[in-house]
Amino acid sequence: MFEEINDFETGFKKLLDDVLEFDIQNPLKDVKKVLCIEPHPDDCAIGMGGTIKRLTERGVKVIYLCMTDGYMGTTDETITGHELAQIRRKEEEESAKILGVKKIYWLNYRDTELPYTREVRKDIVRIIRKEKPDGVFLPDPWLPYEAHPDHRTTGFLALDAVAFSSLPNFSNIDLDMGLKPHLVSFVALYYTHKPNYFVDITDLMDLKLKAIRVHRSQFPEDIWEIWEPFLRTVALYYGQKAGVKYAEGFRIMPGLFYHITPFAELI
Ligand SMILES: [Zn+2]
Questions:
Q1: Structure confidence by residue, pLDDT tens digits, 18-64
Q2: Are 8 and 110 in contact (CB under 8 A)?
Q3: Which DSSP helix (H) or strand (E) runs through 67?
Q4: Which domain of life is it from (predicted)?
Q5: Ligand 1 centroid vs 112 CA: distance in angstroms?
Q6: How far is residue 186's CA from residue 205's CA, in Å, rounded to a whole number?
Q7: What is the Å distance from ligand 1's center to 10 Cα?
Q8: How far is the CA of 149 from the centre of ligand 1 (A)?
Q9: Between β-strands 103-109 and 247-254, what pairing exists: parallel, antiparallel or unpaired?
Q10: Which H or E element spans position 169?
Q11: How far is the CA of 30 from the centre of ligand 1 (A)?
Q12: In terms of pTM, does the model score above 0.85?
């Protein structure tokens, strides 16, 4: 029997606790498998390497989906984009291994040119339907001042794919191939300035840095001298909000909250 509620605070709390049964204190408690979508072959490690290790240690299956080939990521004029893409693929495999990730999907769109199209959206939907993750991690496309179009585009495409993967008439060629529609129960945005959930990575910070540093083509000594303090400062920023030393921050939202919801920012 529907019980009418007369104020927003009570309604909001009831919606989360009783209707959606979404526990924002511990949203990753019951997950068995997650899909982590990254624009380039080092973004999962940079954005959430500690959390990935924490999850795989617990037996959660973490799967990467890398959108581009990393073709542009160098200032070295002696290396071709094709060579770099090959190197970066190997580096990502090595980094994933350190974090306990065993499977990586590559969509191989050209670095810096990831198109916002129906085709790419369908590529992601197909992988969601194949893997049936409980949750999908993606870069926050609303991060203020984010200048890299692949990052913004990946975030939007990933959200689109999560929204449509449960609809049988969307890209129904997947169903002809034997796949089933799949409903993802939450999205988690990394590289976010509006985190609502934190993972304490104090004891994993060194391992996270190691998993990033094996992207040797991206972090030669002179660049690492800038990046290590930067990465530590980002972890301190989230850590301060979480009341620990080093943390990773996420914006985690259940389904209803990323479509037509005026109070999505309150969760
Ligand atoms: Zn990137």
A1: 988 888 889 999 999 999 999 999 999 999 999 999 999 999 999 99
A2: no
A3: strand 61-68
A4: Archaea
A5: 9
A6: 26
A7: 40
A8: 9
A9: unpaired
A10: none
A11: 29
A12: yes
